[in-house]
Structure to design on (746 residues):
């Protein structure tokens, strides 16, 4: 084999130390299979926090080292180890007491630099990127990775032996073929029962030939798929003048940053050298003999469960045209020019983000491009490989690759907002935590301007979702962070580390982000029309080509701008008022006839309702005086379950219809309650019932469990936000106590 796995990883004593089943959240793992592969001693893992809030796990070399670095409460919690120093409290008697119990637990998870870390799991198509990149570039896997990644995949095998696009999804060719290759690269033998089952499942689904576009590309980089079997990703697109409506610079930033390195790899047709292992893999991944397959006939062969977004006729015609162009016309010098331009932009992205990259997919792809272009001993390669560590997360059932390099700013902001709104900020002890979180936000505000650099939007004054190094402006993260800073800095007990001029810079960025329909999108205002979705080649994701307006993002902006006007009455006041007015009209317009809003970034209608009702509340609209709020309350109340809770499944996002899971869920219940409270629903009873549900489900250490995944993106991929159950519950409990009285009537 052409790669050299870190020897130490395999010299580590494998202790067969099994996870404590009770510490896990039930729907997210399948413990039976975990015993068929070795597990490392979790007590040797430590979480390192960089000066920029970057999070990376390290597997210590010895017990002695472990003794000299005792596990923190947060590390034990994340690793599923015994929490002997956890609080142990009697069930709360009042909502506020329950909020305090919840926060007493949650504050123990705060890291020294003031932020809260979080496993951000769900997507099952990320690990292949990092594992293939390490393999192809012949980079040694860090200690502990092969065992933990294997554990994770084994724990998340579906009953049929395969993997889906996310942890809760049915098996797909994308998930199964790529993760099968991961297990084999990491050393699993092909006759291991897990491998046998996975292969059988893959072959039942049609084999790797039925991969969607991204799966085909990853296998091509591994020399397990022929580049000829790919629909085109011409790097020449980057040579088009910027004004062309389909120019990739106008695409949603994730699409453009993923198709950029894909275009480079496709343009140069870069695959790793073939060796005995690759030959074996080729035979295992396909139903037919690899050498007998005519790949060029399979560009559009995609297994039905993978195919969430079939090609449009426009895309098919364009693919046909491009094929003809490639076969008969394409001058090689233009192709070369295309890959050259693509690499310049890749370099720009790497340098702008200090090699952290926008997200996990482009980070892994850029790693390959840097390797091919600059070589494994280049500084750039060393840096990008090092940064990949920050996407990885270790938890009881193994190691995963996260959807981002963390949620640092997002979570610190919501926690601060919850502490202020719940009134917990009055406690002196909690104020110390808040100062640390505020100072964290202070350090994370983006100070540089990236506008125009590699098609990036303005950034000076914005806050990113994860950390300042990644440094991408996000509309609602900027808003939630701004709101949190404003709220905390308005309280007499706190200083004002974020100066007025920096707060104004945040407002300046936001004011540049409103869409033509008056809503706000995620990272940038939309740069092209929805029509571009016709060219979406991904097959597995919907709505990835351009930016759209979302009621959630729009609300966050409204709330932040409103909070800013209370802090600084004069600055750009007229523009702010106009922006808010228009944004509210977008929120109102996007309400569905049944009173609900569709949520795009978490599951689903309860999430969007929490936001939309809050934006209307900023202008004094409530149940008593506003039809929109009344309909929203009625919708939510019609979904309340007999136990007082609410529950939503990710199927709601796919079907766009309210869909429940088996049991009520703490997070969705908090969202629904917050929505009812924002709308000032006048009857206490149903809200109290929901509050009781949250109180009853609180564990004796003050924490909660969420039995189903909370987040979503691109319509079809579920992603977990495990801290939502803390700060949204605390927020709901505290707000209830303040708004409706701190008592339970029964
Ligand atoms: C996220 C996570 C956060 C999310 C919110 C801030 C909640 C949202 O309101 C705006 C969009 C944003 C920033 C967002 C966009 C898409 C992300 C980055 C993710 C869902 C996390 C993972 C996902 C990313 C695209 C995953 C990689 C997959 C690809 C298809 C490229």
């Amino acid at each position: 084999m052409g790669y050299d796995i870190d020897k130490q990883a395999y010299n580590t004593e494998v202790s067969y130390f099994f996870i404590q089943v009770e510490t896990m959240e039930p729907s997210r793992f399948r413990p039976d299979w975990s015993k068929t592969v070795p597990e490392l001693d979790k007590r040797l893992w430590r979480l390192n926090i960089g000066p920029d809030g970057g999070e990376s796990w390290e597997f210590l070399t010895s017990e002695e080292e472990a003794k000299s670095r005792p596990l923190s409460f947060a590390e034990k919690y994340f690793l599923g180890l015994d929490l002997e120093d956890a609080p142990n409290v009697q069930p709360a008697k009042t909502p506020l007491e329950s909020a305090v119990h919840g926060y007493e637990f949650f504050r123990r998870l705060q890291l020294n630099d003031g932020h809260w870390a979080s496993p951000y799991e769900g997507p099952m198509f990320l690990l292949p990127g990092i594992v293939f990149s390490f393999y192809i570039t012949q980079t040694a896997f860090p200690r502990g990775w092969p065992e933990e990644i294997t554990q994770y995949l084994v724990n998340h095998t579906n009953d049929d032996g395969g993997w889906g696009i996310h942890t809760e999804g049915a098996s797909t060719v994308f998930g199964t073929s790529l993760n099968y290759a991961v297990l084999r690269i990491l050393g699993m033998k092909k006759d291991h029962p897990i491998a046998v089952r996975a292969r059988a499942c893959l072959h039942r689904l049609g084999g790797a030939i039925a991969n969607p576009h991204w799966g085909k590309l990853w296998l091509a980089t591994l020399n397990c798929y022929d580049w000829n079997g790919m629909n085109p990703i011409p790097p020449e697109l980057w040579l088009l003048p910027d004004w062309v409506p389909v120019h990739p610079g106008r695409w949603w930033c994730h699409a453009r940053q993923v198709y950029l390195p894909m275009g480079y790899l496709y343009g140069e047709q870069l695959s790793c050298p073939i060796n005995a292992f690759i030959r074996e893999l080729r035979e295992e991944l396909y139903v037919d003999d690899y050498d007998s397959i005519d790949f060029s006939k399979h560009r559009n062969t995609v297994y039905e469960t993978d195919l969430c977004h079939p090609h449009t006729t426009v895309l098919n015609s364009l693919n046909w045209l491009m094929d003809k162009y490639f076969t008969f016309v394409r001058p090689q010098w233009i192709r070369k020019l295309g890959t050259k331009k693509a690499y310049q932009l890749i370099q720009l992205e790497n340098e702008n983000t200090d090699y952290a990259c926008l997200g996990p997919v482009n980070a892994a792809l850029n790693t390959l491009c840097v390797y091919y272009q600059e070589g494994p001993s280049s500084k750039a390669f060393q840096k990008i490989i090092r940064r990949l560590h920050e996407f990885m997360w270790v938890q009881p059932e193994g190691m995963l690759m996260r959807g981002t390099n963390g949620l640092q700013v997002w979570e610190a902001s919501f926690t601060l907002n919850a502490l202020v709104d719940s009134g917990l900020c009055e406690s002196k002890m909690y104020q110390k935590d808040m100062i640390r979180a505020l100072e964290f936000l202070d350090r994370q505000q983006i100070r540089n301007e990236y506008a125009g650099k590699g098609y990036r939007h303005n950034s000076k004054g914005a806050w990113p979702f994860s950390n300042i190094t990644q440094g991408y402006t996000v509309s609602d993260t900027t808003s939630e962070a701004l709101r949190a800073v404003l709220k905390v800095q308005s309280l007499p007990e706190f200083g004002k580390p974020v100066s007025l001029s920096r707060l104004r810079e945040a407002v300046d960025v936001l004011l540049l982000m409103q869409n033509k329909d008056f809503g706000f999108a995620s990272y940038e205002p939309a740069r092209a029309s929805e029509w571009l979705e016709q060219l979406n080649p991904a097959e597995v994701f919907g709505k990835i080509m351009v930016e759209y307006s979302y009621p959630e993002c729009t609300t966050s902006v409204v709330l932040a701008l409103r909070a800013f006007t209370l802090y600084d009455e004069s600055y750009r006041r007229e523009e702010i008022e106009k922006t808010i007015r228009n944004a509210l009209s977008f929120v109102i317009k996007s309400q569905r006839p049944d009173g609900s809003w569709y949520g795009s970034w978490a599951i689903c209608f309860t999430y969007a309702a929490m936001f939309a009702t809050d934006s209307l509340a900023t202008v004094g609209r409530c149940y008593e005086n506003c039809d929109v709020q009344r309909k929203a309350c009625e919708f939510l109340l019609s979904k309340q379950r007999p136990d007082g809770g609410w529950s939503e499944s990710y199927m709601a996002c796919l079907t766009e219809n309210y869909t429940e899971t088996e049991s009520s869920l703490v997070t969705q219940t908090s969202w629904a309650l917050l929505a009812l409270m924002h709308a000032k629903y006048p009857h206490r009873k149903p809200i109290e019932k929901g509050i009781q549900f949250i109180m009853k489900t609180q564990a004796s250490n003050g924490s909660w469990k969420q039995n189903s995944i909370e987040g979503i993106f691109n319509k079809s991929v579920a992603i977990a936000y495990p801290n939502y159950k803390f700060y949204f519950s605390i927020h709901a409990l505290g707000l209830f106590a303040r708004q409706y009285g701190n008592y339970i009537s029964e």
User: Anything to note?
Assistant: The longest strand covers residues 45-49.
